[in-house]
Specification:
- The chain has 409 residues and is of the alpha/beta class.
- Strand 1 and strand 2 form a beta hairpin.
- The chain starts with 13 loop residues before the first helix and ends in a 10-residue tail after the last strand.
């Protein structure tokens, strides 16, 4: 019996449509396809993955049952592998999804994406962008944290919540960007440059909640890697994927396994820090108490020595010495004065003996002319010369008469 054509008055049930789609797809049989593995997940022995076209943006899901997987060549399949698969399209009526059931699979070579990434990795390594010497240390307590992540994403919520739990006063500047797709390189690069130019931002976190190999390709873009390497602000990569680390992880100053781990690595725990301060203060108090006790004991030991226990002997001994020195000093001073007095008396006597006045006292006089010169010969005082005679008791004025009886022969 032929079923009627569906219409608005007589529509098909969903089950009928889905069954017809499955019957039509089943008639396609098996086909060989070529592509690049972008997701490879093993669960209960079965493999669930995705394969991408080598040139165009086209991806399909595939399933490898454990019975088929055990017959595959002993090769380590992983994301990025270039493979050829024998598949049969399978439409799941209950879920309305299309997947490819794999019956055979073999590696052709390194996938195009992985090959490009490896070439870029080697290039940047040669330039030294991944050197440990370029890694910048993170600040102990950042004034403001820059966060680059998807809008309203779980990664954003995880970072903000865990950071505020550890340090309630922490501040963020959030810049939203695409975290998968073709817009990732340009938007993440612009966000890095924007936050790096903000002087209040001390560290930048780039967070994403994991994803498959294909979804993380934007974080291996050369523009993103070079922007992170050129940033003066320390950068933390929190892409959250262990199996396939993007190149951003290699150039970042710190790699965090998850956004939550990034918050814990960047922001210190206030409770832990207060506990450390209390512990340090307790240790300091103990050390100071021990030091003071030790010094007090040393002082007590010094004071207990005889030289300090009975210190009067120092004063007594020195007092006797001072008394002897004072007595000796007085004796020496007295002798010095007596000797000086004797010398002065002797000098006084000699001075008097040599004094002209002493000669005058013996009956002599000094004859001086009017201008004061001393007359030594009669010829120097002709008759009529005014003279002055100096005697012990004074002076007498006189006039020379030139008497030759007084002239010296």
């Amino acid at each position: 019996m032929t079923e009627s054509v569906p219409s608005a008055e007589s529509p098909w049930p969903v089950a009928v449509m889905s069954t017809k789609i499955r019957e039509y797809i089943d008639r396609l049989g098996t086909i060989w396809i070529e592509g690049e593995v972008t997701q490879w997940s093993v669960s209960a022995g079965n493999v669930y993955g995705k394969v991408k076209d080598l040139e165009q943006d086209a991806t399909v899901s595939f399933t490898i049952w454990s019975s088929v997987r055990s017959k595959l060549p002993q090769e380590n399949f992983a994301q990025g592998d270039h493979v050829v698969l024998l598949v049969k399209p399978n439409f799941w009526v209950k879920g309305g999804t299309l997947t490819m059931q794999v019956f055979s699979m073999k590696q052709v070579g390194l996938g195009d994406l992985l090959e490009r990434l490896e070439r870029l990795r080697a290039k940047l390594t040669d330039e030294g962008l991944f050197d440990l010497s370029r890694k910048k240390p993170l600040p102990f307590l950042p004034q403001r944290i820059g966060l680059i992540t998807g809008k309203d994403s779980d990664a954003e919520k995880d970072v903000l919540r865990n950071a505020q739990l550890r340090w309630p006063g922490v501040q963020f500047r959030v810049v939203h960007s695409a975290v998968q797709g073709d817009r990732v390189p340009s938007e993440v690069t612009a966000a890095i440059e924007k936050l790096d130019s903000d002087p209040q931002v001390d560290v930048i976190i780039i967070a994403r909640g994991g994803g498959d190999f294909q979804n993380l390709l934007g974080f291996s873009d050369e523009r993103v890697v070079r922007a992170a390497a050129a940033a003066a602000t320390p950068i933390v990569s929190a892409i959250g994927h262990e199996a396939d680390r993007p190149l951003l992880d290699e150039v970042a100053d710190l790699r965090a396994s998850t956004p939550t781990d990034a918050a814990k690595r960047v922001v210190p725990d206030v409770a832990e820090e207060l506990a450390r301060v209390s512990q340090a203060r307790a240790q300091l108090q103990t050390r100071m108490t021990m030091l003071i006790s030790h010094e007090v004991s040393r002082i007590e030991q010094v004071r207990s020595r005889p030289v300090l226990a009975e210190s009067e002997w120092i004063v007594t001994t020195r007092a006797e010495e001072v008394t002897r020195y004072v007595a000796r000093g007085s004796e020496l001073a007295r002798r010095t004065i007596e000797r000086a007095e004797g010398e002065a008396t002797e000098l006084r006597s000699r001075l008097k003996a040599l004094s002209p006045r002493a000669t005058l006292n013996r009956g002599y006089s000094i004859v001086q002319a009017a201008e004061g010169s001393i007359i030594r010969k009669p010829q120097e005082a002709p008759p009529g010369t005014t003279l002055t005679l100096t005697l012990p008791g004074g002076q007498i004025a006189a006039t020379s008469n030139g008497d030759p009886a007084f002239e010296t022969p």
